[in-house]
Amino acid sequence: MLRSFAKFWEYGAGKIALAAICAHSVSISIGICQGYSAILLPQLNETEKYRSLTEDEKSWIASLGTITNPVGSMLSGFLAEFMGRRRAIQITALPLVLGWMCFGLAQNIYWLYAGRLITGIAAGMSPACYTYVGEISTSENRGFMQTLGPICASFGILLTYVLGYFYNWSTVAYINISMAIFSAIVIQLVPESPSYLLKNHQQAKAFKTLLWLRGNNALAQQEIDRFNENQKESNSNLMSFREMYFGPQTVKPFLILVGLFFLQEFSGIYTLLFYAVNFFEETDLSINEYIASIIVGAIRFSMSVVIAFLINIYGRKILCTMSSIGMATTMSIVAVYIKYYEFYPDEKKILSYLPLIGVMANVAFSMVGMLPVPWVMVGEMFPLRVRPIMSGVVVSIAQILIFICVKIYINMNSALNFSGTLMVFVAASVISAFYSKFILIETKNKTLEEIEAFFRGNKKNVDVNTETGVDNKAFDMFSENLDENRVNTIRVIVET
Fold it and tell me: DSSP letters along 158-189, please?
């Protein structure tokens, strides 16, 4: 067993996994930021100083955690472009520590507002993580490595719910500082992204990094040669700023991702996250709301681990499609149940645990596609020249949409009733199923260069068979001196 592990570490994906975990460790803090309002708001109701807060003030406390996310996303993109991916990830610790200190020392509601705004900046600084992991991974394991982000975020959310059950919200804030410091330290243990080094003409360092990641001289040199060839082709086209940022290789993935994130937010995924405890209060469960939130958080974390293995088997399209169908079905059941008792409030409830079961199933379905996949695709859809900045732009738009959905949730409940709000989530999930099936592209088993070539319309550079993962160019070189029958036989065996 030790020999197998040593082989995995030296020649397999062991070092890539270590680097990805170190990079995505900051996603634990991001998950903590996302889940914090779910324990903060109910505890404020039990605190004499904050018991008189209005519903509007509470909605601002919840939503202010997202309004500054776009600032963090854009900042992360620019830092990753000009200071390096690793340094951009490290800097995330600064607003995290400052924001949690505001909560710990809070004297009035304005300290809480400040804490949400500052930690919101940090929560938006995920583009650097996904860019870094996308660039150190191979096409075969990139999907798995990128899902470590949602896994870490889900762990952070679950950790927040558990801590909120045992500790006061200010104590939880102080505990969260240690996680931010931990992330800043561990990212220093891994090398910079080879793509960033190559882009900045540091070929020797890039080769050393690739050799450490791949464990093979030939593979490291092959990636450098492929990068140089791609850069020569890009330079020969003499692309202007307008062509780089407004060409089809940038605009097409931008529109696809924005559409996907729009449907993700309006399907209720993040609304449920930010108002977890309040959500279960609305369903009038005969179970402690914190326990219900912990159960849902545990399911979310468990399913985030499952998606790590499913994403390289089924690909992005089918997972998002099936996820959307499952979310629409489960939320429909909850909505119909709630609507019935809105019409007949005096009737004794039967199947009182149905809303909890429905929400648990909804969360499970969201975690196998519509929640993690958009974030995974952010780090792989854009060309290298614009990747950090455009990833930051897309994530900024996603965070603005999250802010809107979180801010209007209470107003939607007032205007549409709780069941009407749930039906909006259902409608968005149904639309996302069709969107995923007919508009979303598949990136499974494609290199970042091949994805760029696809959007540019240059099909000749797409050398990997997306169904089998077979490298067509390498196969053609191998088969040059073989007769046709033997070539066809070998191809059938390899693809099978």
Answer: HHHHHHHHHS-HHHHHHHHHHHHHHHHHHGGG
